[in-house]
Amino acid sequence: MIYPEQLERIIEFYKKLPGIGEKSAERLALATLEFKEEEIIDFSDYMKSAKKLLHPCGVCGHLTDQDVCSICSSENREKNLICVIENSKNVFSFEKVGNYNGVYHVLNGLISPIENIGADDINLSSLIKRVENLEKPEIILALKSSIEGETTTLYIKKIFEGKNVVISRLSYGLPMGAEIDYIDGVTLGHALNDRRQISE
């Protein structure tokens, strides 16, 4: 062990974050130690509070500290236009672009037979119920271009076949295999506007 034990523990926690390797974790740990004591206490309190209070929205599955998130409860949103996405990170990405006025449905995962994740393991049943209660619904499938994303897309398309639901997907202008939350705002905006219908 080259680090003091207490520092090693902090580094190991930072390494659990996505995209954080040994060097980045070391920098973050050392930077954290530079905080004032009251800042460390605030940081700890915020983390505990967020873990306790944040949960999936009762309607769409997006992260919120209310029963229903601010997007679902907004009267200015088009409730019959539902953008289906993998996780809450993607919601934040779309909202930063600022040109989408529909609502979302967060699957909190994708179908992946390799990882034994089936349709019942993701937030699909509530999507079906939402769509059944809408007039002239449109679903925008905004899932990543991967085997899991394509499998989930085809499954959703099959569910709504013959049910008078318009299904479109983001333009293939998105790079193959790209994570939506890493796509720049301009590209994401164009992909949203250039979506194409894949069923009626």
Helix percent reads 40-55%
Kindly report the average pLDDT value. Answer: 90
Q: Reading side by side through the largest sheet, how are the strands ordered? A: 4-3-5-6-7
Largest sheet report:
5 strands, mixed
> Could you name the ranges where pLDDT drops below 50 across 5 or more consecutive residues?
none
Q: Report the principal-axis shape.
A: elongated
How far apart lie the N and C ends?
Answer: 61 Å
Q: State the secondary-structure class.
A: alpha/beta
What's the alpha carbon Rg, rounded to whole Å?
20 Å
Counted by DSSP, the helix tally is 8
| Strand residues, percent | 5-15%
- Number of DSSP strands? 7
> Helix-strand pattern, N to C?
HHHEEHEHEHEHEHE
Task: Tell me what the structure shows.
- The longest helix has 17 residues, at 37-53.
- The radius of gyration is 20 Å and the shape is elongated.
- The protein is 42% helix and 14% strand.
- It is built from eight helices and seven strands; from the N terminus they run H-H-H-E-E-H-E-H-E-H-E-H-E-H-E.
- Helix 1 (5-14) crosses helix 2 (22-33) and helix 5 packs across helix 8.
- It has helices spanning 5-14, 22-33, 37-53, 70-73, 88-97, 125-132, 147-159, 185-193, and strands at 55-56, 63-64, 78-85, 102-106, 138-141, 166-169, 196-199.
- The mean pLDDT is 90.
